[in-house]
Write a structure and sequence with these properties.
about 240 residues; 6-stranded parallel sheet; alpha/beta
């Protein structure tokens, strides 16, 4: 069956977030300090520890979950343990937290050229991404403004209601693109990307930029986004 769509994970697939490890726990202290200062709350060791406990509760690297939680839920709990009564400051706190972890992100050098080439070939494109700590969709859209015009469908886990590898996100993605599962390649850098794609019958492609040579059951392995076109030319459209 011919390939009609190429879909991607976002972080460490199209955009580089390697300034931070996959588990953000080691950076909670500095992020919490920035958040407290942004809403004019005194920074104390007790508040930092209370915030750390809440963030750890929602850390999917430590406590995996299928369902998604939005950032408002997380920050309402943070404000409760910090005894902050003014809920109007939640938006400021969310923005500060999100900015702390995204401000150093950048596109991989080949990302835009590959997306342009996919469009030139009339291949549909989509993104399905798990959102850390329920980051608001509009914040992510701003973060990916430089590639948004090349992506037909963008699905954050906060919109799906479930996190990869739950099948629902993949199903919603192909429904929006109006393609069948075997007509869609899904490219990602983690086991959840591959597991989810395999569950629904997509062509799973692991992007292994650092040559770790891991096997998550992927159909194909590539080293960078540049390899996608060769993959399509050599194997997908025969």
């Amino acid at each position: 069956m011919a390939i009609r769509a190429i879909c991607f994970d976002l972080g460490n697939t199209l955009k580089n977030y390697e300034s931070f490890p996959l588990n953000w726990q080691g950076f909670y202290h500095d992020a919490i300090v920035e958040v407290l200062r942004s809403i004019n709350i005194e920074v104390t060791a007790d508040k930092i520890q209370a915030g750390d406990n809440v963030l750890l509760k929602f850390n999917t690297r430590v406590n995996p979950r299928d369902y998604e939680v939005n950032s408002e839920t997380i920050f309402e709990e943070l404000f409760h343990v910090w005894e902050v009564m003014d809920s109007s400051e939640i938006k400021t706190a969310e923005e500060t937290f999100d900015s702390f972890f995204t401000r150093q992100s950048k596109l991989y050098p080949e990302t835009i050229s590959i997306l342009k080439e996919l469009r030139k070939r009339n291949l549909k494109t989509g993104i399905l991404t798990n959102i850390a700590y329920g980051m608001a969709g509009e914040r992510l859209l701003r973060d990916m403004a430089d590639i948004r015009e090349y992506i037909e469908t963008f699905l954050p886990s906060t919109e799906v209601g479930f996190r990869k590898p739950h099948p629902q996100g993949y199903i919603s993605l192909t429904n929006r693109l109006k393609v069948d599962m075997p007509e869609c390649i899904f490219v990602g850098d983690e086991a959840v990307d591959i597991t989810g794609a395999n569950r629904v019958g997509m062509v799973s492609v692991l992007i292994d930029r650092n040559s770790h040579n891991v096997n998550y059951g992927q159909t194909h392995t590539i080293r960078s986004s540049n390899d996608i076109m060769q993959l399509i030319d050599n194997t997908m459209l025969e």
